[in-house]
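User: New here, any thoughts?
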Amino acid sequence: MKSVICVGPNRLQIINGETPEKLPGHHLIRVLYAGINPTDWKHLHAGNQYYTMKASSDSKPFQLGCEGYGLIVQSDDAAMEKNTKVFFLLGKGYGFTNSGSLTELINVNTKHVAIAPIKISPAQIAVSPLTLITAYQSLRDAGYYEPNCGQDKSILIHAGAGGVGHMAIQLCANIYNFDRIVTTCSHENIEFVKSLGATDVVNYKLEDFVEKYNGNKFDVVLDTVGGEPTFFYGICASKSKIANYLNRSSQVTKKNGKVVGLLTGSTLYGGPLGLAGSM
């Protein structure tokens, strides 16, 4: 059985390993498509294992990949027969740090497996779990997680054409039913985000969302761009408007509204110390 492993910083190997036996409480799945996310290439670049952050080596490798699509080989649930098409998200923080989706066969906890949708392609299905759950958890943290909870409410979603952003738009449009869904994106993606359910768009290359909506504020803002540094790290950060989404988002949020930000290092790339500052 072939698997892709990391054996050091930016060092990949394809190995032939033993075929795994099914574990209790798990489905044994034949992986047909696997998703690659920022967390994967960041750990590959650093050569550090997921969550434990222990250095990888030839003798202590780790497998890459957090999500995927495939077929049930051996089931642990009567509702999922052999060859059922499923998608899954791996719980890498729960004891199986050497299991990754870039492999041919994998054991996945039954709680992390679902029957695959039928209206999108297997490749699209494989890359949806992590972005979808990130969007869901972010909105849940702001108190929005039940059907129709967005009625009579407005939301601003930054980077609506991105992975998390485009999932958030669909949740807000199709399940939470927000009255107003505004998103920021480039000109090239305006029609795309509108097709997902955005009611208005800010072309961030030409418009400033604070100037545009300061008099028409939002109940909740989901910032997938920000990640402003705190304390003394602020001296390293870029001073441009694009590099300060999280703080500026509060300026267009209602008094009792919520701002939810996803932490990134993107705000530091334009600063005096560049990438070194973000480290």
User: Anything to note?
Assistant: Residues 119 and 125 are 9 Å apart (CA to CA). The first helix runs from residue 38 to 46. The chain has eight helices and 13 strands. The two ends are 37 Å apart (CA to CA).
